[in-house]
Amino acid sequence: MGWTMTLKDDFRVIAWTWRVGNYLSLFFLLSLCSFSVQSDIVSAQDHHFSWKTGQWGHCIGEECGSDGVQKRTLWCVHMEGWTSHHAQCQHMAKPESQRHCFKVCNWHQNLFQWELSEWGGCVLIPFFANELTMRTADCITAQHGIQRREVHCVRTSNRTTVSSRICEFFSQKPPVEQACLIPCPQDCVVSDFTSWSSCSKTCGTGLQHRTRHVLATPMYGGAKCPNLTETRTCSNSADCPVGESEYQYSLKVGAWSQCRLLHHKDTLLNGRTTVDISTSSNENNTVTMHTLASEHHSYHHHHSHQHHPHAHNKYPMAWELDVGYQTRQVRCTRSDGKNAMLSLCTEDNSPLMFQVCGMPKDCQTSDWSSWSPCSKTCRSTDLSPGYRLRSRIMTQVPVGGGKQCPALEEKEACNIIGDLLPNCPSFAWRTTDWGDCHIFPLLSQQDRWRVNISILCGGGIQTRTTYCVQVPDDSTSHHRKEVSRPVNSWLCSGEPPSAVQHCTIPCQHHCLLSQWSPWGACIHDCKEPQGKKGFRHRRREVLWESSSPQDICPHVVEFVSCEDPACYTWQVQQGEQCIPTNGLCGPGTAVQHANCVNAEGKDVPAVFCEGNPPPTEVACEVACSADCVVGSWSSWSTCSHSCATKSAEGRQSRSRTVLALPGKEGKRCPAAAALEEWRVCNDHPCMVLYWEASAWGPCIEDALIDVNRSSFLNVTSSCALGVQIRKVSCIKMNTGPVINKRCSDPARPEMVRPCLLPCKKDCIVTPFSEWTACPSTCIPDNTTVVTQSRYRIIIQRSSNGGQECPDTLYEERECEMLPVCPVYRWRTHKWHSCTLVPDSVRRGLSGPGEPCGNGLETRGISCVEESGEPANMTECLQRAGPLPLQIRQCRVPCKDDCTVTAWSKFSDCSGCGTSRSRKRSLTGRSKKKEHCLNADLYPLEEIAACPCDEFLSQPYGNWSSCILPNPSAPGSLKGWTSHREIKECGHGLRYRAVACIDQQGLLVKPTLCTETGYVVEICHVACPLDCKLSDWSAWSACSASCGSGLKIRSKWLREKAFNGGRPCPRLDLKNQVYEAVRCHSECSQYMWRIEPWSMCTINTVDDLPACGEGVQSRKIRCVKKGTTSGETSSVEDSLCDQEEMPPRAQVCFLSCSNDCVTTPWGPWSSCPLQCDQLAMRNRSRSVLRLPASESPACPELFQSEPCIVNTTCFTYQYRLSDWSTCHLSEHAICGQGSRLRLLDCVRSDGKIVELQKCKQFGLINKSRLSESCVVDCPVSCILSDWSPWAECSHTCGSQGQSVRTRRILQEAHEEGRPCPNQLIQIKPCPIRPCYTWLLSDWSSCIVEGAECGDGLQRRNLSCVVHWGDWPESPPQPVEDNLCGDKLKRMIQQEMKQPCFVPCPGDCHLTVWSSWSSCQLTCLEGRSFETTGRQARSRAVIIQVMENQGSCPHQVFETQPCKGGMCHTYQWRTGGWSNNERAVWCERSDGVNVTGGCFPQKRPTTVRHCHPPCTKPFSHCTPSGVCGCERGYTEVMTMHGFLDYCTRTPGVDNNKKADVKTNSGRLKPGLSPAQDLFKEWTLRPVGPDGRVKLWVYAVIAVGFIFILFIIALSFLVCKPAKTTKTSAPPQKPLTLAYDGDMDM
After folding, report:
1. What is the C-alpha to C-alpha distance for residues 1507 and 1188, in angstroms, rounded to an integer?
2. How many Å apart are CA 522 and CA 561, to the nearest integer?
3. How far apart are CA 849 and CA 1413, in angstroms?
4. Facing residues of 1108 across strands?
5. Confidence of residue 1587 (pLDDT cuts 50, 70, 90)
6. How far is Cα 834 from Cα 823, in angstroms, rounded to an integer?
7. Across the chain, which distance is largest between two alpha carbons, in Å?
8. Which of 198, 687, 791, 1218 has the fewest CB atoms within 10 Å around its CB?
9. Are 723 and 764 in contact (CB under 8 A)?
């Protein structure tokens, strides 16, 4: 189903056909088109009112089709133009206001469109009838204009034109006219006149002239150019000699006629010549050659025959030239322009009126080739259209002044509407996967030879390959690994992605562990039934663990076996004091509490503990007043051994002391043995066990793995799950593995864990690139086999069992067999006989004569193949080299000619630099003829330089850079690129160009002197030396003697970097670099170990009871921390802290019987954390035995004292040490590391205590003690490979250079080796001679055989050689064959042009002036065009006034130019002289011109005073008003005019001026003093009759002065107020006026 629309050209009926079967429906599309669009007067009721209709509106309807409705507006208008009610018009004549129409569907508008032409030129709008120009005075900036264009409605299918009303229905018709601006009329601008020429005659009256040239032509209706020549008469004082002819006679020749073909049959008719001597008004005396034009048909036929010599050949197979003849007019002209008898101008030799010539042949070309494909085949952001080319070849070379060849190439725009084209392919950079991480490039020279590369880890670098691909058009975003065909990298714009990045090889870092905890209780696996064997554990924590998965931390749990383990025990806490059962003393009970706790000391339910809980009440006893009182048990001492062996076991003790002795009747004290208890401790054997786990194995498949275990991985991956297994062994300390049963099974590490299997990665490669191009035409003979190649790039390497990469990444193949380029050569035919002018022509002009003289001879040429078979001439024109000569001059000897023998052979050469000669001699009568003996006309000996094969080799220019050998890496660009270390130093080569010069000093091919054209020598590039440092020194002592600090080691400088080596790290003033790590010095590695107090010893006198004060002592030893009490490891007391040394003896007190006995004082209570000065601390003690009634009461049981900082109260805080330097693994040089700091607990007095103290006071450390850090890698500069050497910048000469470049892939970082400065290398090109065709300047006009008339200007084409820096090295002529085909070159140039040499008395044009400067058309100093214009002109020179009627018109021409300027014009004036001055127009660049300035604004050149200055001693001033002469003062009337002149007082006029004059020209001279006086003369009125400005100023100053006097008088005369003291006397104010008006 489809719609077909058929339109009639008159647009009256349009048929729309709906093709469904044979059903056709016809209807109107636009019925409005049958009506006029303009509003019209339809009918009238009477002569005053009529109907007026508007335009039909758009077709409106619900659906497209024939059911639409159109409406228009109706008015009833009066004949005078005003609108009235409709009732005023006749109802019967009322037009319809609504009609049916066809509503066009939306898809209809795709069938038609508006076609617009380009805007035409801007045309002036006439202001008056038939006026197309504007008056210059009315134009300010521009004139109004209008420009038009063609607008047609066309079918989109075939671009045929239809009625515009169809398109108007879819869219409004585009405007066909628009306003435009035309610059104001620009008059012709000419230069100043040159100086007058010399007089045309040296005696009598003559003429002289001066000329000017056109600088700017008139535009936009400007004034025409004035006459460029001025002529005036001149006379000489010397009279012309008597008897000398009044006129001067000259032989004048005309232009040569066209070359006529020779016809021997019609020589009498064609060559008949008559001499016409007439007496016309011009007195013409001309010899005219009358010929018939019957040969034209033959000439045309000849051409036709040459164009199609054979029916089967499209182009000619050979060329032949014909010889014709040509004639010219010769006459004798007189200096007044009239002709005279020919004999007056010629003496013996008759002028040359005929000559032979080669028949002209026009250039012929082949047919046009087909159009090339359009250069724009896709839609891009560039809106410019594409272009296509077609060409044709030359089939006939123009000969003898024939028509030159037309353009052999044609170019036209194509694909102007870019929207119809597909989108242009876009290109983007792609990258391969990153390669392996390498650390070796980061190493310095010092480290490379002494480091095991296989164990290196840490930071490194990795590389990848960047390449360019074509991005499909229908995609907006692509995956990075999108497989696209690689293309040339120059197709991608912008910088390529980075090809180098940092990477990391994980290191096995050592874990940082805490100290071991104390041994725990003997426990067993509490989940199992209790047995007889358990384990004691001690633990340590991992303080910092690296993220490396290969790290294996040491074991963190150790255990020893023990007997009778208990997972849960009863913990008893004493309750209240002992309460006697009877009375105040004696036996009693005490309450205690028991809790069930686990091995960690945490409360658990009582059911976990075995057996019954301890009783809540226990028996106790309260001492009576006479009983012995014993203190409580001390804490257990440290165990004597850490473990039990066969020979020793650990023991510890505790003791108690007697506090009061008993009375006579009291209870006795226990025995001495009962005051001390011993028990076994650390009875576990000295066998420490631990679990040792190996490193996790690789992830392997396991079909039994639970999928739910993947939740432990906390990783989402598409790869399969596997397991990792490791070996766990029970290790006995210092022994080795033992059976696993001996280790604690709950502490066993896991042996299996889930893992993610590494994903399989298949190798991904790009498709092969396109094959490189092969030759498309033919290949020269004896050439190597031409190949083409393609490549592909590996994007992703295979891994984990994926598909391997293909072996072939680069393919190469031979191109298809192409035909060998055919070889063509020119074949020259035999020279024809010398052709002369026909005898009939010669006899008709000169009478009978012999057939001799100068002529022409020709020969044919043809084109043959290498085999000798004939070929088209076009083949040789393209491939056979220079065209052979076809025509040359010849001579048929005449009887009177000088005859000579043939030239002899050249003599032998004796060597380079010598010459050779050849000779000939006169024969016959020529030996006796005088003119034959003239050696200049007839040389008898010829000397030529001998050919020489010796050449001089001369080095030229500078040396190239030192070029290092670049090891080729075949296929490196096609496959996986690994950035190797590029050699930057060592031995290389440098080049210097050689100029090869022959014996004449001419530049020749360099291969004649050297094979390569270079002088090559070995050079050396110094290798860069890296900075060298010493080895690390030993670690220093810890910076802190107590607590945390740093220890340091250093390196020092041994050698500085040189020649761009790796720089040194940041060194200090001592040229050292440091590394610091944390350290910790124990504040007290030694401790005081005390033994129990001895018994209290009391010195008794007589029989007194042993009670009261006494002395007790104890032993104190300084031991190292960590030693047990059984070890004898006492050291000197000075190693322990003397301030904390416990007392060795103390006063003790034994209470007597019946005295009150108390416990020792308890510890002081804690002060507030901040040690508040108002706070108090307390201690207490309790009563153990009450005193007897008669005894003293008990002492105080409670004490308190204030909290004093650093005395009775201390505060504590954490202190962090400094961070250590970033610490790396021992096998890493950079990358991820860690740095640490230590934590100390510092007391307020500055003493460092154990961390436990800060924890006891509730201090929490929130600072991190370790963190990750990064050591920047010393990345050396990474460069790309050198690009291939570019083509030479010049194909010849000494200025050629070849360049290669490289770019920086990675800038140097930190201490990496910096990038070299040399990113560009330049190598001189071989110095080849530059052969150029040099076209000489036009010669002067040469008239052959006459003095004036039509002649020729010629120029020569010569082959020259130069060094490429012309004009610095002047060109030197060489043989023409070195430059190529001279004849083809001459065809492209005008080698001769007609000219004219005026005869004396001729009116003629001057030569062309030089081109003027480039000028733009500007508005208000701004140009609206990019192309300017420049002009030149020829002026008319009149030599004799009688010849003015025959003078040609002056001419000028313009040409476009670039780089123009905006010029403005301004009137300039000179100084007045005798009421006259010079006025001229000046251009903005300072050139004086005529034209350009507005004539209406021209300043006056002569001034006049009105009324005339008739007063005595007056004259007209420069201002145009009357003034007085010097020494006189103007007296003006009230109207500002000069009344009379009065003598200035004090001025002595030596000479009286003439009263009759009024111009001042005869006024007497004044002395300098008088001039000065005159300048100070007061003249209130200026020369123009106006009051001068200073008069108004004097009046204003005078008025202000009067006001000042009035105000001052008022102040002086005002009565003063009465005061006690009288005012000081006022001095009178005196004002003096000397009559000066300036006051």
Report:
1. 161
2. 8
3. 58
4. 1150
5. low
6. 33
7. 199
8. 198
9. no
Name the amino acid, one letter, at 1422.
R
Element (H, E) at 1384: helix 1382-1387
DSSP 324-347: EEEE--EEEEETTS-EE-GGGT-S
Q: How many CA atoms within 13 Å lie on the side-chain side of 100?
A: 6
- Residue 873: exposed, middle, or buried by beta-carbon count in 10 A (0-12, 13-18, 19+)? buried
Distance of CA 1577 to the CA centre of its chain: 74
Token digits of residue 1035: 């670690």
Q: Does the pTM exceed 0.85?
A: no
Question: How many CA atoms lie less than 13 Å away from 867 in the CB half-sphere?
Answer: 4
Q: Using the 8-state DSSP alphabet, how is residue 379 labeled? A: B
The closest of 1272, 1371, 1269, 1381 to 1329, measured between CA atoms, is 1371
> Do 160 and 102 meet the contact criterion of CB atoms below 8 Å apart?
no
Q: Which residue has the tokens 């028509």?
A: 403
Q: What mean pLDDT do residues 1349-1357 have?
A: 91
Q: pLDDT tens digits, residue range 894-936?
A: 888 888 888 999 898 888 878 889 999 988 888 888 888 888 8
Q: Which two tokens stand for residue 1562?
A: 């005869």
Three-state secondary structure call for residue 109: helix
In our burial notation (b when 16+ CB lie closer than 10 A, e otherwise), range 1511-1527 reads: bebbbbbeeebbbbbbb
Phi, psi of 493 (to 5 degrees): -100, 165
328 and 254 in contact (C-beta within 8 Å)?
yes
416 close to 410: Cβ distance less than 8 angstroms: no
What's phi and psi for 628, nearest 5 deg? -75, 140
pLDDT per residue as tens digits for the range 808-824: 999 999 888 788 888 88
Contact residues for 1290 (Cβ-Cβ < 8 A; gap 6+): 1296, 1297, 1325, 1364
CA-closest candidate to residue 1033, choices 1018, 1051, 1054 = 1051
* Radius of gyration of the chain, Cα coordinates, nearest whole angstrom: 63
Question: Phi and psi of 441, rounded to 5°?
Answer: -65, -15
Please calculate the CA angle 1370-1374-1377 and round it to the nearest 5 degrees: 135
Among the listed ranges 30-34, 343-347, 705-709, 1136-1140, which one has the minimum average pLDDT value? Answer: 30-34
Q: What is the DSSP letter of 678?
A: E
Nearest to 567 by CA among 521, 533, 607: 521
CA distances from 182 to 56, 189, 1492 (A): 39, 19, 17
- Neighbouring CB atoms inside 10 A of 1246's CB total 7
Task: Please report which confidence band the pLDDT of residue 857 belongs to, taking 50, 70 and 90 as the band edges.
Answer: very high
Among 1207, 1201, 1219, smallest CA distance to 1243 is for 1207
Contact assessment for residue 551 and residue 536, using Cβ atoms and an 8 Å cutoff: no
pLDDT (mean) for 1466-1494: 87
Distance CA 1377, CA 164 (A): 65
